[in-house]
Automatic annotation (TrEMBL), chain A:
GO terms for cellular component: membrane. InterPro entries: Na/ntran_symport, Neutral_aa_SLC6, SNS_sf. Belongs to the sodium:neurotransmitter symporter (SNF) (TC 2.A.22) family. It is found in: Membrane. Na(+) binds at residues 23-24, 28, 252, 284, 403, 407. PROSITE patterns: NA_NEUROTRAN_SYMP_1, NA_NEUROTRAN_SYMP_2, NA_NEUROTRAN_SYMP_3. Keywords: Glycoprotein, Membrane, Metal-binding, Sodium, Symport, Transmembrane, Transmembrane helix, Transport. It is a multi-pass membrane protein. This is Transporter. The lineage of its organism: Eukaryota, Metazoa, Chordata, Craniata, Vertebrata. It comes from the Eukaryota. GO terms for molecular function: symporter activity.
Automatic annotation (TrEMBL), chain B:
PANTHER family: COLLECTRIN (PTHR46884). Coiled coil: none annotated. Residues 22-216 form the Collectrin-like domain. Its main location: membrane. Residues 1-15 form the signal peptide. The chain crosses the membrane at residues 145-169. This is Collectrin-like domain-containing protein. It is a single-pass type I membrane protein. Keywords: Cell membrane, Glycoprotein, Membrane, Phosphoprotein, Signal, Transmembrane, Transmembrane helix. Residues 174-216 are annotated as: Disordered. It is found in: Cell membrane.
Length: 600, 216
């Protein structure tokens, strides 16, 4: 039968940039610095780099090898490796679908912030005034202006997952724009994606570099950098450190979604993926470290700013209470005056004590934040205090956008490539139509995240949609390749593609180390889920002006279970289906197809 | 602003002031050095004279009479902080003080003029007990973000339309070319006999060699 040529990358550089653009995403910016801070600063590099070598690079290379060899998306590739394991591919596609649904909402938020940066005063810099213009809105007073802008104006969040509200029209528009851009970038498959990744992979580095220069020249930035890089080696004894390092490497590289298989399937047969895998993994980890340097200088700036504002408030308090001339107390001699005034006016000073705050720089630096809270609240708070804050705001949110878009390209390709491998779909729908339908479908479902309780559903998807299923998928993948398919056959395939067999490092990692690591991570996750009790989430309390912990209602927990089960059970379900359909046919085709895989 | 709120909470027994005279009075606090830094001026009697004049001006503007003079503004308890108390006496009867609410309204109305006379702001020239009148938010007809959004989404739409029309045009050209006798790649369609379909008719692509079809 006549087959259209499989489209391919214009040159290997596009493939490498696509992988970099996919792997380097928001997690490098908002998760790694947090882990670094939690687990002993500079000392965290040790488990992180060790895990990179033990599981990151081998698993990355394995997925690229599979994609390049099979020249199909995840479903077709895994069906070809073992007809009973097509379910692994289906699980990957479903997990990618979940990811696509909620990940683009982050891009919508980035757009919202980006568009709001084009104002003379950044809207999150000041609280809005209340009705009779005597003060600021109460919710904004209790929380901070940046938190108010995020929770009230951006999300208009309700106080619990039970209270649905209407859609936020601004968010819905931004989500529409985000999906239109994703469509524009993937409309012709790798032909369009290949050109876009030149920009999405490189521009974030430009911005990070500019921010690095700006960051380290900010007042107080060095406090943050020093704090981060001071290694606290006792954290290495904490098993949580090692577990977090392993999971960070694993999720940061984007394994298990099928995107790497999809990207590699468009490669030339003899492309040197081994070297590219090492390069991309190192770039990914290097970017994490680079981004955390920037993040910590920003942290240092913010902490110093807050610390000095606190000191200023105390200085004013002392001046006003004791009616002293303004220039008697400065920030330098405030400690002296504290003790002096306590000594000379003990009664008045005692009255003052309820209003006194302890200004502690260490405590400010200790407040570690991750996730959307870091990206949209902490960073915007730091930016509003910089001179020329609009410029920095535009730069920063464009960078977030590009990081997010780059990852979205991989996610969408992971869904579209296996779909296109089905002849039925490829014949009846053109490239553009199929991509458009996928984007439209995801957009319509994603509108649910723009409702008032949408942020809570987002958190649910973020925490449960892809974590557990991915570990399961990649564990099955590596066990299949090493034992079911056979390491010998895999070696021969690689020799066929690269011209040499993989050396002992790869074989040991694929056969023993990575599966062991994955099994222990898997067991840890299960134990954690069981011990954690009822799943909880952080709800925004309007009166208190901060987040409170609430339990998920019954339907929330049911949905979590659905998320986990729906992707995981594809594997046994598809195996069962394959077993039943094969049983109906006469001869066992299993040996036939496997031996045919290695022969040419 | 915070200093203002903090001091409101302070118990009234602080400071050596006889409050019985000042139930209609207001405490004023100036933070000149904070506001102006190196260009701060010295607070002296002339500055106090100006202050009394501006308050008298505010009372005149509010009551729309020309009755109030400098002598109607009585100042007490100046401190080094540069804070003091003042009361406004009625022009007809100097022994009687003007109501607190009237004074407050008068000052609120002319607050901007008073601030500007001293090159200070609501935060650095505090009238304790009178909340500042915050500037009304400027709400433009179209929110600015919508404008930027419109531009970006317009560009994206144009891009999508351009790409789609170019591919439709290409396909139509391809269809026209197909009506002419096709020049076939002899290798296409025959698959060099590698299409080993297994007995179930499933074409396993895992082993097909379609290198010749890739473009690199």
């Amino acid at each position: 039968m006549e087959k259209d040529a499989r489209p391919s990358w214009d040159n290997p550089m596009q493939f490498v940039l696509a992988c970099v653009s996919y792997a380097v995403g928001l997690g490098n910016v908002w998760r790694f610095p947090y882990l670094c801070q939690m687990h002993g600063g500079g000392g965290f590099m040790i488990p992180y780099l060790l895990m990179l070598v033990l599981e990151g690079i081998p698993l990355f290379s394995m997925e690229l090898a599979i994609g390049q060899k099979m020249r199909m998306g995840s479903i077709g590739a895994w069906s070809a490796i073992n007809p009973y394991l097509g379910g692994v591919g289906i699980a990957s596609v479903i997990t990618s679908l979940y990811l696509c649904l909620y990940y683009n909402v982050i891009n919508a938020w980035s757009f919202w912030y980006l568009f709001h940066s084009f104002q003379s005063v950044l809207p999150w810099a000041e609280c809005p005034v209340n009705a009779n213009r005597t003060g600021y809105l109460e919710e904004c007073e209790v929380a901070t202006a940046t938190q108010y802008f995020f929770y009230r104006e951006t999300l208009n969040v309700s106080s619990s997952i039970d209270e649905n509200g209407g859609m936020h029209m601004g968010q819905a528009l931004c989500l529409l724009l985000a999906w239109m851009i994703v469509y524009l970038f993937t409309v012709r498959g790798v032909k369009s994606t290949g050109k876009v990744v030149y920009f999405t992979a490189t521009f974030p580095y430009v911005v990070l570099f500019v921010y690095l220069i700006r960051g380290v020249t900010l007042h107080g930035a060095l406090n943050g950098v020093k704090y981060m890089f001071t290694p606290k080696l006792e954290q290495l004894a904490n098993p949580q450190t090692w577990i977090n390092a392993a999971t960070q490497i694993f999720f940061s590289l984007g394994l298990g979604f099928g995107s790497l298989i999809a990207f590699a399937s468009y490669n030339h047969h003899n492309n040197n993926f081994e070297r590219q895998a090492i390069i991309v993994s190192l770039i990914n980890s290097g970017t994490s470290i680079f981004a955390s340097l920037v993040t910590f200088s920003i942290y240092g700036f913010k902490a110093t700013f807050n610390y000095e504002s606190c000191l200023q408030r105390m200085r004013l308090l002392l001046l006003n209470t004791f009616d002293m001339a303004e220039d008697t107390i400065t920030l330098d001699n405030i400690d002296y005056w504290f003790s002096e005034l306590n000594r000379t006016h003990p009664l008045q000073f005692a009255n003052l004590i309820p209003k006194l705050e302890t200004c502690d720089l260490e405590a400010e630096l200790d407040t570690a934040v991750e996730g959307t809270g870091l990206a949209f609240i902490v960073y915007s708070e730091a930016i509003k205090n910089m001179p020329a804050s609009q410029l920095w705001s535009v730069l920063y949110f464009s960078m977030l956008l590009l990081l997010g878009m780059g990852s979205m390209l991989g996610n969408v390709t992971a869904i579209i490539t296996p779909l296109r491998d089905f002849k039925v779909l490829a014949r009846n729908f053109s490239n553009e139509t199929l991509n458009g339908l996928v984007c439209l479908f995801c957009l319509l479902l994603g509108l649910g995240f723009t409702t008032r309780s949408g942020n809570y559903w987002f958190t649910m998807f973020n925490e449960y949609g892809a974590t557990f299923s991915l570990l399961f998928i990649v564990l099955i993948e590596v066990v299949t390749v090493s034992y079911l398919y056979g390491l010998k056959r895999f070696e021969k395939d690689i020799e066929d593609m690269l011209g040499h067999k993989p050396n002992w490092y790869w074989k040991i990692m694929w056969a023993f180390v990575s599966p062991l690591l994955l099994i222990s991570l898997f067991i840890f996750y299960i134990v954690d889920y069981i011990r954690g009790g009822t799943p909880t989430y952080q709800a925004w309390d309007q009166e208190l002006g901060k987040s409170v912990v609430m339990e998920y209602p019954w339907y929330g927990q049911a949905f979590i279970a659905l998320l986990l089960v729906s992707s995981v059970c594809c594997v046994p379900a598809a195996a069962l289906y394959a077993f039943c359909t094969k049983k109906q046919k006469v001869a066992p085709p299993r040996e036939h197809s496997i031996s045919a895989v290695t022969g040419v | 602003m915070f200093g203002l709120l903090l001091l409101l909470c302070l118990p009234p027994a602080l400071g050596a002031v006889d409050f019985s005279d000042y139930e209609n009075g207001y405490q004023v606090r100036l933070s000149i050095k904070t506001a102006l830094g190196d260009e701060a001026y010295e607070w002296n009697e002339s500055e106090m004279f100006l202050f009394r004049a501006t308050i008298a001006f505010a009372m005149r503007q509010f009551t729309k009479t020309e009755a109030y003079g400098i002598d109607n503004i009585v100042v007490r308890n100046q401190t080094q902080r540069v804070s003091f108390w003042f009361i406004v006496t009625s022009p007809e009867n100097p022994a009687q003080t003007v109501e607190k609410e009237t004074v407050e309204k008068a000052i609120r109305r002319s607050r901007n003029r008073i601030n500007n006379a001293f090159l200070l702001t609501d935060k650095t020239l505090e009238f304790l007990g009178i909340p500042p009148t915050l500037a009304a938010p400027i709400s433009p007809a179209t929110p600015p973000w919508l404008i930027v959004f419109g531009v970006v989404i317009g560009l994206v739409c144009a891009g999508i339309v351009a790409l789609l029309t170019s591919s439709v045009v290409k396909r139509r050209r391809g269809n026209k070319a197909k009506q002419l006798p096709e020049e076939e790649d002899p290798a296409k369609g025959t698959d060099k006999g590698i299409t080993c379909e297994d007995r179930n008719g499933v074409y396993n692509q895992g082993f097909s060699d379609d290198d010749r079809l890739t473009q690199l």
